[in-house]
Diacylglycerol kinase accessory domain-containing protein (Zea mays), 341 residues
Amino acid sequence: MERQGKKNPGTDYDSVISFLQLVRESREMNIDSWHIVMRMESPKDSPCDPIAPPDLPHSLHAFRRMPKTDPQDMEYSYTYRGGFWNYFSMGMDAQVSYAFHSQRKLHPEKFKNQLSNQKTYLKLACTQGWFCASLFHPMSRNIACLAKVKIMKKSGKWETMEIPQSIRSIVCLNLPSFSGGLNPWGTPSKRKQRKRDLVMPPLVDDGLLEVVGFKDAWHGLVLLSPKGHGTRLAQAHRVRFEFLRGATDHAYMRMDGEPWKQPLPTDDGKVVVEISHAGQVKMLATKDCIAKGVHDHESCPAISTVHPESIYNDMNDDFEEERRNFGAALSFRYLSDVNKQ
């Protein structure tokens, strides 16, 4: 159920009754699902090890762990796959989230109060240097120095996305809710829409992700103002991160609130992360939910006629095999695979 609020529901009798009343009054809406495939390739003697299963987010699963089929091939290939509904992020915001997540795993007894958790999170943001990123964050970990980011629009062709050098965190957003219910995309003016080739407004069932960048925590605090927003970078059907060789030995990533520390090869290996559309699921939305769908904006025919799957039918897809039988969740499996079971 999509509430997009900052407060978690309580477990006492009155809170449960109140929550059930919200369910009763909610409406059904479709939201996009998104596949994510991550492939690591590195020489056999590379110090870059795959991620251990306990360190993976619940929505990301190891697809295989084996050398390539050719015995003469000196490279190993590790592939992970999963999915999300809300967002995928990479950079310093994920770094702070990972620090918080690690502390909570070590001392779960200290993380039972929401207000206390928020204070701890703010403290970690300070100690991790998120508020003074220009002083404590190496330039090599800025997004533009870390990876080449490619996007695919309706044309079905990959194009390189220009990212300002100051961007230290990037978010691929499906729902207008991030970091406690804030909306990083905001509402662009019509002039900015035309200038940046943006589809307006961002909808949760249009087959598009909103890609937003942040410079530091102060930039993120702008979201608290009525018209605040991050740096709008693009709207796309697919997003692909190709990590640059030797930029750093790890990067922090986060998917629907679950962070992990991603090893990166410093030798001839490579890591590629690709996000693509995976159909839709139904969800209940409360009456005050800010998320909107295509049917809420019938006056936008250019948006309502978008069918993202149709532009990929004739493409050679390197990740086709990995997208089958996605993870453990039925929602992230191709329909043809589900029907065979």
In short: The chain has one domain: 35-299. The mean pLDDT is 77. Residues 35-299 form one domain. The first strand starts at residue 27 and ends at 43.
